[in-house]
Amino acid sequence: MNDSPGWAPPGPSPSDDSDAPEQRTQPQAAPADQAAPPPSSDGPDGPAPTLPDQPGADRPGADQAVTDRPVRGRPVWGAKWAERQPPAGPWAAQSGGAPAPPPAPPTAPPSGRPTGAPGPAGPVSYGGWGAGWTQPPPAARPGVIPLRPLGVGEIVNGAVATLRAHWRPVVGISFVVALVTQAVTTVATGLWFRNASGLDALENDPNPTLREAMDAFGETLKSSAIPLAAGVLGTLFTTALLTVVVSRAVLGRQVSLGEAWREARPRLLQLCGLLLLLPALAAAACAVGTAPGLLLVAAGADSEGAALALLGGLGSTVVAVWLWVRYSLAAPALMLEKQGIVAAMRRSAKLVRGAWWRVLGVQLLALLIAIVVSAILEIPTSAVGMAIGGDNAVDWLSGESVSVSWTFLVVIGVGGVIASTITLPISAGVTALLYVDQRIRREALDLELARAAGVPGYDM
């Protein structure tokens, strides 16, 4: 019990009883030759008060219990209390004698901004304790993307921003690749597939046999194989060459068409090998899946062989898509990391591992954007081609088996070149930025890019 003035305990507490042997004083016994004083209920400082919050004070006889003769060895309540007590106030309840908490430090500035000098990146001060949560500083953005893990929209916007900011090298590379691929497609179509019937041959036969159906399906695959292969190879080649441009665009640096070509030229041999190997893997997967069914058809079991070929074709298509996504980042790894073909494919598989579905979704989104933009851009040339070719051109565009002129094919080819010149950079830029994003997520490439771009706060 603290008897100093200014301390007003509200009543007994468990801590008072535990400290009683140390805090309470024993009364001194009277000498033997002196008579004991008469019993009195008054203490040294006056009459003992009745405590309203004392246990039992509100029961009958509580006043008499307080004012009775004190028991030997037990002090009277309030015997040493100060006459003047401090006024009532908002006193905080203390437990165990703990000190009062320190005053709150100064708050943040009214604007809510950091008190230190904010930079593009690096440590900053956010005011004192209790200032509240504030937004972290934005990531450094020296180029077309912020240097942090990217969202899907940021990847697509980065590809479009690269096309706009570096349109000379981007359009130059895309135009050359689109011109070559569209020329190959137009020549192959004019020489071999102008009169290809495909599935249109089944319209004249209401009950075709299984072999006739498979022959028609094979003709359709052959007529679309060359344009598909040319488009795939053109996309891979453009991706590899534009990776150099995208890497400079991420750092906010300019690059010319000649600089991009000089940097990519030493890797062209490995790039051509990669361009041949990736489609060969997908084709091999499809061939392995459909081969057993085709062998059964050749042996005479048409129905069983067709069913097995259909199931094998579906399974092999899934495997081919899985392989394509797994090695879709091999071209950027080949160009930027200066690795060989096999090493670049292993590198792509490592970066895609654990993010296969995300990479597939982003690639499908880029493909959908390319298809929509290409269809819009080819509308004028298709209208001109139909005006030149007449009814045959309309029927040929709708998939029917008719013969068309070379003039019509050239006009359609021009529209394809224009559309591919715009869509190839989008597809290539998305793939290159996917490679950058995966390395940022797995290897903290954003720190190296910030140092390479000279962002303050990242210097070694």
SSE arrangement:
Layout: H1 14-18, H2 20-23, E1 42-43, E2 46-47, H3 62-67, H4 152-165, H5 167-192, H6 210-250, H7 257-264, H8 268-299, H9 302-326, H10 330-336, H11 341-352, H12 356-377, H13 379-389, H14 391-397, H15 406-443, H16 445-453
Antiparallel strand pairs: 1-2
Helix pairs in contact: 4-15, 5-6, 5-15, 6-7, 6-8, 6-10, 6-15, 8-9, 10-11, 12-15, 13-14, 13-15
For this entry, give a set of tags.
globular; 58% helix; single chain; disordered N terminus; mainly alpha; 460 residues; two-stranded antiparallel sheet
Outline type: globular
Strand order of the largest sheet: 1-2
- How would you spell out the order of helices and strands? HHEEHHHHHHHHHHHHHH
Uncertain runs are 1-36, 38-68, 92-96, 106-128
**What is the distance, rounded to the nearest whole angstrom, between the alpha carbons of the first and last residues?**
62 Å
The proportion of residues forming helix, as a percent range, comes to 55-70%
Radius of gyration: 44 Å
Count of alpha/pi helices: 16
- Name the beta content range: under 5%
Structural class: mainly alpha
Largest sheet: 2 strands, antiparallel
What do the pLDDT scores average to?
A: 75
Short description:
This protein is 58% helix and 1% strand. The chain is mostly helical.
